[in-house]
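Task 17 of the worksheet. Students: predict the tertiary structure of the chain below and write it out as structure tokens. Keep your answer in the requested format; marks are given for formatting as well as content.
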Amino acid sequence: MDKGLFIVILALAGVVLVNILSAPPPFEGKSELIHIEGSNFESEVLANPLPVLADFTSSTCGQCRRMSPDIERLAVHFKERVRVAKINVEKNPHIADRYGIRELPRLVIFADGKPVHEVRPGRLRKMIAAVEESVANN
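Model answer:
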């Protein structure tokens, strides 16, 4: 094997290992997430009396998969004040197109049937603070 190719393979293996080891622990508890399946978007997101944090995601998005336990925790944390919906853009491309979702992950807060704020994906505490601020202002 070529020495350069071996180094590249070794580096890629290191990246994969770092991603596996740095992933947050899986969520353990009762899920409060709403899973959007196209037909329930209108009732669960747009017509919901509570604000809805929509997590636009994809099965091929590594950062989305890493954030998934934190999104579950957000749903539990806000269960009485904000609903959290997971929208797979592969299964619901029409919803992603409708709201101009071009890159993932994307977190959008909907209130009164309209998108009112985007929350930057990041650490759980920062996402909680951003959602609380947005809900307080809308």
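Marker's comment: The chain has five helices and five strands. The longest strand covers residues 52-57.
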